[in-house]
Structure formats: C-alpha cells, structure tokens
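Study this chain:
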Amino acid sequence: MLDFDLAEIFQVETRVLNQSVKRNIKRFPDDFMFQLTKIERENMSSQIVMTSRVKRPKSAHLFAFTEHGVTMLSSVLRSDVAIDASILIVRVFVAMRQLVLNPPTDKVGELQKEVKELKQYVEDVFKDYNDINEDTRIQLELINALLAELQAKKKELEKPRNPIGFRQSSSIN
C-alpha cells in the first residue's frame, strides 16, 4: 500500500507517517517497505484519479509498504487508530492471499467443464460404436460373400450327373 493511502487510513499526514518511518528506519527492511522509482511514480500518477488536489502526494518520494510494513507502522505510530487500522489492513492482506491461493469456485464454469467432458466422452463412445459397426459391417459382407460362394458350390455339387457306365436296355428279357 502507498504511504499517502496509509496516512489517510491511519488519520495522520503523509509527512508525519514518513517522518515516523525515517526515525525508525531499522524497523523497515526492503521487504517491508520500498521507494517507487521515478518511472513507477510517473506511471502511477497517470493512473491515480483523485478529485481533490489535497489528497494527491506532494513529495518527490513515494513509498510502498508490504503487509509486514503495515504491521510495523502500527508499532511506530502507536495510536489507537493506527493499531485498529493496521489490524484491519493485515486481515485484508491475509484475505487477499487466501483468494490467490484458493480462488473461489465458479459453479457455472465447473458445470460447463463437466458438460464439455461428458460431451467428449459421448462423442468418443459413438466414434468407437461407429468403428465397431463399420468393422461388423465389413465382417458381415465377407460372411455373405462366403455363403454365396458356398451356395454356388453346393448347387454345382447337387447338379444331376450323367451316369457313368453302360446302360441296360429294358427289352432284353
């Protein structure tokens, strides 16, 4: 969080907050607080929309505080407002971390995903079913062709044959 935002929350002037930090600088290592670069400050200035010029940061230095830095501010400022605000801010940081680590579930999105998976499964089953039907159709065609051949051979085998040998005439006796 930025120094001027924290000053407003803690109900102190930004310069008072920054003076307290400078007097206790050993309590604010780099992972608790850092100064924004000129480029970062310029980029931020174009994004900060405030109606009142009074609320805009005036100093050339702009400090940002991490969750731990905000906690440390409550020990430096020592007012009841600072302590209560610090507790609330730390709770916000913890809640934000929880949201990042465990994003809320999207029930509609989950249902859409399940329907998509089910649709894919059904398509795969029908594809397999169609493949089986195609294989079965080919096998039935082969069986029918073989049966036709067998029937043709059977007709050929059952065809009356010309008798082999001599014929006796029935008038000899």
Q: What stands out?
A: The radius of gyration is 45 Å. Residues 105-156 form one domain. The first strand starts at residue 33 and ends at 35. The CA atoms of residues 133 and 139 lie 10 Å apart.
